[in-house]
What we know:
Layout: H1 2-17, H2 25-37, H3 41-53, H4 59-71, H5 75-87, H6 93-99, H7 110-128, E1 138-141, H8 153-159, E2 171-172, H9 173-184, E3 186-188, E4 201-202, E5 213-219, E6 222-223, E7 228-233, E8 238-244, H10 248-254, H11 260-263, E9 266-272, H12 275-281, H13 283-307, E10 311-312, H14 320-327, E11 334-342
Parallel strand pairs: 2-6
Antiparallel strand pairs: 1-8, 3-4, 5-7, 5-9, 7-8, 9-11, 10-11
Helix pairs in contact: 2-3, 3-4, 4-5, 5-7, 8-13, 9-13, 12-13
Amino acid sequence: MKIIRFVFLALIFLALAVPADAGDADSLxxxxxxxxxxxxxxxxxxxxxxxxxxxxxxxxxxxxxxCFSALAGDADAAFAHLGKAIAAGFLNDDQMFHWDTDLESxxxxxxxEELQSTMAAKIEEANAAxxxxxxxxxxxxxxxxxxxxxxxxEETLLKRRSRRAFDERPLTxxxxxxxxxxxxxxxxxxxxxxxxxxxxxxxAPSAGARYPLEIYLVAGNVTGLMxxxxxxxxxxxxxxxxxxxxxxxxxxxxxxxxRFVAQAAVSIVMSAVYERTTARYxxxxxxxxxxxxxxxxxxxxxxxxxxxxMGTCAIGAFTDLDIKRVVxxxxxxxxxxxxxxxxxxx
Length: 346
């Protein structure tokens, strides 16, 4: 009986000593993240190592393991994990090489430049695989936008806020039409206008009227419009379907897992073809004028959404290449904004 009692007590001890989630990769990743937030970097590094051994294999898991190891002072493990992150598809060079202070201790190591070269080659290869032009599956003429609304400009400005929680109410095709027109719709056209205007003068001003932006609609919950990715064509106030299916979860993952992206009925994604502006204004066009154009169009989305009882929040934190892939951008474009739009949750 003493032997049985000893074994019983030993089993209880083991159950208490080993967490119930010891073999659960997701739980271990969550635990490692919590330890990181507590600044217990050595424990965070050890825990995410266990998570990887248990099957965690996402690019972000390897990247986080690299960060935790760097903070814990283990450069060898950090470089090994970061190399695996790149191989698994982590291609956010801005984050890894420029602003992530978790990796500060690695920057003077000779292996740092090797890591940069590896990622640069991977990004170049991935960009080369992007399409040169869009292929339209279908073109849809949108309902005519209205030019009067229920809320004054002054009231809209007063109420405008960034909204980061949405309910499940769908948008209508008329809602989509209004939002896209407000973003970059044509407000003036006459015969003989230059081709670079792409339909005419628009709701957002543009330096030299070069209009460098491309506007995409990621539709997930729109009555009368199948889920998919659409390109807005201001001339003729149309949208062109580029891909079928609800990609809101993929867009969320590309936006560093900001969950309200998946909640929103749609997202308006903006990119720029810099050449349209730099051809006239050079580097100043890239550094300044395109940014100004983006701000004008983005504020239009904010104000129109607010006036319609909806909300949005401009997102700049995302992995560029992942956004390009999800939306189906061409090689010449650079993603700039993701703006989820929906009815705010109470």
